[in-house]
Fold this protein.
Amino acid sequence: MDELITYSKQLILEQSEELIIEECKRNPRRFEPLYNKYYKPIFRLVLGRIGDKDLTADLVSNVFFKVLQSLHKFQFKGLSIYSWLYRIALNECNEHFRKAGSKRVIVLDQTHYEVLTEEMAIFDDGHKEALKNGLSKLKEVELQIIELRFFESLSFKDIADVLGITEGNSKVKLYRAVEKLKKLMKVS
């Protein structure tokens, strides 16, 4: 059996993501740096929608399996591969919801709460339930754009890539989603 190919953290930092992707296309064993870099963010993303760690682990496993199967189709366009992984993870979650007949959950941890209340200029405590209720009333795309920007810290360019819209449109949609959330929370 061939030895697994591993990389030091320094080598991962030295190589561009584009180069690593091209190496992965030629030899799937070289996928480890990308897996190590994106496993935790993808796990958090799925966990935030599913709410169950064991099920999340299974779904994330499926995500990376699908990524390996279709990596040869990935076209590097100067953006991180994360937006492509994100779309695959969302599709995996949506497929799970369809099969299981369940709905997504909203996990609002303290960091997310603090980021959103700061963005919405809410400086007194005690709005966590109102915020969670407001988030649950948003349309999926509105919730998604808030999560991408404030929970995942993606740039507007990356958000546009994930959602298949223009960068300018991602800014407008985020502004509107935040304003709608404020109204749902009855915050001005």
Summary: Residues 32-50 form the longest helix (19 residues). The radius of gyration is 18 Å. The chain has ten helices and no strands.
